[in-house]
Amino acid sequence: MQTLSQTRRMPHDDSHATPIADYAVLGDGFSCALVSRHGSVDWLCLPDFDSPACFAALLGTPDNGRWLLTVPDAHTVTRSYRGDSFVLETTYTSATGRARVVDVMPAGDGRADLVREITVLEGTVTIEHEWVVRFGYGAYEPWVHRIEDDHASGRHAILAISGPDAILLRGTRLPHASDHRHHDRFQASAGETLTFSSTWTPSWAPTPEPLSVPDRIAETAGLWHDWARRSDYRGPHREALVRSLLVLRLLTSVKTGGIVAAATTSLPEEMGGERNWDYRFCWLRDAAMTLEALLESGYHDETTQWRDWLLRAVAGNPDDLQIMYGIDGRRDLPESELDHLPGYAGSRPVRIGNAAVNQVQNDVLGEVMLALDMARDAGLHDSVDSWSLQRHLVQALISHWDRPDRGIWEVRGPERDFVHSRVMSWVAIDRAIRAVEVHGLPGPVEAWKQVRGEIHAQVMERGWNEELGSFVQYYGAGHTDASLLQMAQVGFLDATDPRFLGTVAAIRATLMDDAGFTRRYETEHTADGLAGDESPFLVCSFWMVDALARSGDVDAASDMLDRLVASANDLGLMAEQFDAQADRMTGNFPQAFSHLGLVRAVHSLDRAVAAREASLVPCEVGS
Asked: What's the rounded Cα separation, in Å, for the pair 426 and 284?
C-alpha cells in the first residue's frame, strides 16, 4: 500500500463524473443512499452507515454496483422532496410522455430496504431498469439467481448473495440477467405503476416479508414530517434551516445515537487529488456541534440519546479519550485504501477507516462541554455518572492542554501549539466552572479558575501577532486560520474586541474569495502533510457569517448568508466544500459540518437583526 507521501497524483477527467450536486440523499436512520438526478443509486452501504457499499458506482463505474430506474430519453428532469421529508419525487418528461419516480428508504421498522415506485402520468414512456449488486465496495460479484418468492401466486424475486450479505430484489416486473447484471427496457403507458424494493438481510437469515410499498412511503413521509414540525422556527431561510436540521437527524443512528460526519467516503476536496477521507464515523466535535444546532432549534431528546452514547463510547480511562469512534462506539477504525476503485473523478486513493482516530486534538473536549452546557441550560439534568465523566475528562485535559496537537483540521504534518486548540481547552474548563456556579454541580472550581486564567493569558500573549493585527494559526506563525472565527462564538473574546475584529479582517483578506466562501487555512503556509490544494470550507464560511453578525455588521452577514444558502443544490443539500470558481461542490456529501454551520449562522443573524431593530426603537417618555 502506498503511504500518503508516496501516493501518485493520477491524471483525472471529471467531465464524465456525475456532479456531487446532482445527488439526492435518502436514509432510514441506519444508513444512507445517494441517487442521481437521472435515477441511479450510486452509493449505498447496508445495513449501517459504515458497512461496505453494495452500490459503489459513486467512486467507480456502474460495474462497481448501482441501481438505475429512469426514463432514458427524458429531456426535462425535475425533483423535490415530499414536504419536510426524505421521500424523493423525480419527474421525467420525454417527447412521448411523463413519469414520476418515488424513492425512499422506509424508516421506523428496523429493516434495511430501499423502495422505488414509478408511475406514468401522461402518454407513453420508455423505462430503463438496471440492477447491479457488487458487495465489498464494488469488489465482489455475488451469486445472483431467481427464487420463488410466493408459491401461491407464482411470484419470483432475484437474490444476490456473497459471504454474510444478501440482497433481495422484488418488483412488479423483474429485470433479466445479461452480461453480469440485470437489465430491462420497456414501455409503459399513463396510469401504470410499477414498484420495486431492494432488501438487505444476513445471508443466513430467512427471506423477509414483502413490503406494502405505498403504505411504507406514506408512513415514512409522516415520520419525517412529524419530526420537522418540532421546530417552531419561522424566520428567514426557514426552508434551508429545516432541511439542514433534517440532514443532521438523517446522519444520526436511531440504533445507537451516534452522529456520523457524512454519508460518504473519499469524495475529494480537490478533484484528482489525495485529500479524500472516510467520514462515516462519529467525531465528538462534529456530534457536539450538531447537538448545539439542534438545541438552538428546540430539539432536546437527541441530547439525552447522544449523551448516553458518549458515556458508553468514552467509558474507561479519561486519558484514552479519542476524537472519534465508530457508530457503535468502537475505537478501532484502521485506515486502508481500496485499489480496485478509481475514485470519484479519478481522485485517489479511496480510503476506508480513518487514521486520524489516533491523533491528539485538544479542542474536542471544549465542544463536548459546550454542548452539554447548552443542554443543562435547556433543562437536561446531569446524572451522577454523566457529571462524573465530565469532571474526569476536564481533569485529564488540565494535565496536557499545553502540549502541541494536530488541531481541529487534523493535520498530518507536525504537531503545533494551535491557538484554536488552546481556546477550546479554555472553553472546556470555563463550561465546567459554569456547571458548578450556575447549575450547582460539585467540582474544584477555584483550581479550575486558575487554569482557565493561565490558558487565556497564554493565548493573548503568544497567539497574537501584532504585525499581522490578528491571532494566528499556531504560536509563532505568520498566518491566520478560519477556526479562530469561533473565538467570539464560544465567549473567549467579545465580538467587538479590536483583536477579534482584526482577526476577522485578516481572515477575510487572506482566506475568503470574492463570493464570500472561506478556506480553512492557506495550504501553502500550513504543513498538513498532503499535496495539492482544497476548496473553501462551508462551515468556515458560515462561521464568518456568525462573526460578522455578532460584531454588528448585519448587512454584510445577511448578504453573505444569502450567497452561501444559494450554494446548496436544488434539494437544499450541501457537501463539505464549495468551489465558487468552478461552481461545484467538493468533499463528502451531505456533510453535517456544513449543515450545522448553516443552522448556527441563521440563528446568530436573527439575534443580531433583532438587537439592531431593538436599538432603533425610540424610548417612550418616562420609560
From this structure: 17
- pLDDT tens by residue, 498-532: 999 999 999 999 999 988 899 999 888 787 777 77
pLDDT in tens, 192-209: 999 999 999 999 999 899
Is residue 307 included in any domain, yes or no? yes
User: Angle at CA 62, nearest 5°, toward 58 and 68?
Assistant: 90
> The dihedral of CA 468, 474, 479, 482: what is its sign?
negative
- Both 449 and 598 in one domain: the answer is yes
Q: What pLDDT sits at residue 618?
A: 61
With a CB cutoff of 8 Å and minimum separation 6, the contacts of 452 are: 426, 429, 430, 433
Reported residue count of the chain is 623
How is 234-250 classified by DSSP, letter by letter? Answer: -STTHHHHHHHHHHHHH
**Residue after which a domain boundary falls, among 186, 218, 250:** 218
| DSSP string computed for 360-426 | --TTHHHHHHHHHHHHHHTT-PPPHHHHHHHHHHHHHHHTTTTS-B-TTTT-SS--B-BHHHHHHHH
- Residue 146 in grid coordinates: 431467481
Number of domains in the chain: 2
43 found inside a domain: yes
- Grouping H, G, I as helix, E, B as strand and the rest as coil, residue 129 is strand
Beta bridge partners of 104: 115
The Cα 48–Cα 261 span in angstroms is: 14
Residue whose cell numbers read 436544488: 570
| Least confident residue range of 253-257, 260-264, 485-489, 522-526 | 522-526
Q: What is the tens place of the pLDDT at every residue in 331-340?
A: 999 999 999 9
State residue 152's pLDDT score.
Answer: 59
Residue closest to 318 by CA, chosen among 388, 372, 383, 421: 388
Q: Are residues 135 and 236 in the same domain?
A: no
Q: What is the DSSP string of 459-504?
A: HHHHSEETTTTEE-SBTT-SS--GGGGHHHHTTSS-TT-HHHHHHH
- Cα-to-chain-centroid distance, residue 422: 26
Confidence at 168, pLDDT banded by 50, 70, 90: very high
DSSP one-letter code for 591: B
Give the 3-state secondary structure of residue 622: coil
Q: Count other C-beta atoms under 10 Å from residue 576's C-beta.
A: 27
What is the residue range of 147's domain? 19-218
pLDDT in tens, 103-137: 999 998 899 999 999 999 999 999 999 999 999 99
Mean pLDDT calculated for residue range 452-474: 98
pLDDT digit string, tens, across residues 77-96: 999 999 999 999 999 999 99
| Closest of 259, 420, 423 to residue 327, by C-alpha | 259
Domain membership flag for residue 602: yes
Mean pLDDT of the chain: 93
State the CATH number of the domain containing residue 59: 2.70.98.40
